[in-house]
Amino acid sequence: MQISMKAALGAVTNQAKDGYMDDLTIMKETLKVKDEELYQLVRELRARDSTIKEIADKLSETAEAAEAAALAAHAMDKERKAAVAELERLSIEMDERQRSSGLKLKKADENVAVLTKERDNLMKQRDAALQEAHLWRGELAKARDRAVIMEAALVRAEERAKFSEADAEARVKEAVEKQMEALNAKEEALKEMSRLQAELQRDAGAHHKSTGTVMFTF
Questions:
Q1: Which of 33, 108, 150, 171 could disulfide-link 8, Cβ–Cβ 3.0 to 4.6 Å?
Q2: What is the pLDDT along the chain (218 residues), one digit of tens a residue?
C-alpha cells in the first residue's frame, strides 16, 4: 500500500511538472489511489480471511483430532491400567502356579524316587524269584527224574513183591503141608508110642508078675 501511494504521488508530481494540476485533479488522483489501495486491502483481507478460515478449520480439525486423541489416550490409559492390573493379576496367578507347580514337581520327584526304589526292589525280588524258579525247575527236573527212577523201582519192587508173595504163598503152602505131614507123623508117632507103651506095660506087667519088680511107666 505504501508503494502504491509513492507511485501515485510520483505520478502526480510528474504531471505537476508537466503541467498545471488543480486541487480537484489531485484529490481525484488521490481518491483513485486510495480506492485502489482499499480494493487491494479488501483483497488482502479476503485472502487473509480465507487463510484465517482455513487456519481456523485446520485448528478446529486439530482440536477435534486433539479431543479425539485425548479421548483415545484416556481410553488407552484406561485400557493400559486395566491391562496392567490384568498383568499384575496374571503375574500373581503365574507365581502361584509356579509355586504350586514347584511343589507338585518336588512331590513328583519324591514319588519318582520312591517308585524308582520300589522298582529296584521289585526288580531284585523278580530276579531272586526267577533265580529261585530256575532252581526249582532244576529241582523239579531232578525230582521228575527221581520220580521216573522211583516209579521204575516201584514197578520192580511190585514185581518182586508179587514174586515174593507168590513165593511166600508157595513156601507157606509147602510149610503148611510139611506141618501137616509133621503133625500126621507126630500123630502116627504118638500112636506108635502109645502102642509101644501099651506093649511095654503089658510086657512089664507080665515080667512084674514073674519077678516082683516095680516098673515105671512113661
A1: 33
A2: 444 444 544 554 454 444 445 777 878 888 888 888 888 888 887 887 777 778 777 777 777 777 887 888 888 888 888 888 888 888 898 888 888 888 888 888 888 899 889 889 988 988 888 888 888 888 888 878 887 887 888 788 778 878 877 777 787 788 778 778 878 877 887 888 888 888 877 777 666 666 554 444 44
Contact 65, 25 (CB under 8 A): no
pTM for this one?
A: 0.32
**Residue 29 is placed in which grid cell?**
488522483
Q: How far is C-alpha 89 from the geometric centre of its chain's CA atoms? A: 32
212: left (phi over 0), alpha (psi -120 to 50) or beta: left
- Residue in 29, 30, 41, 35 with CA at minimum distance from that of residue 1: 41
Q: Whole-angstrom Cα distance, residue 35 to residue 28?
A: 10
Instruction: Please answer whether residues 25 and 13 qualify as being in contact, where contact means their C-beta atoms are separated by less than 8 angstroms.
Output: no
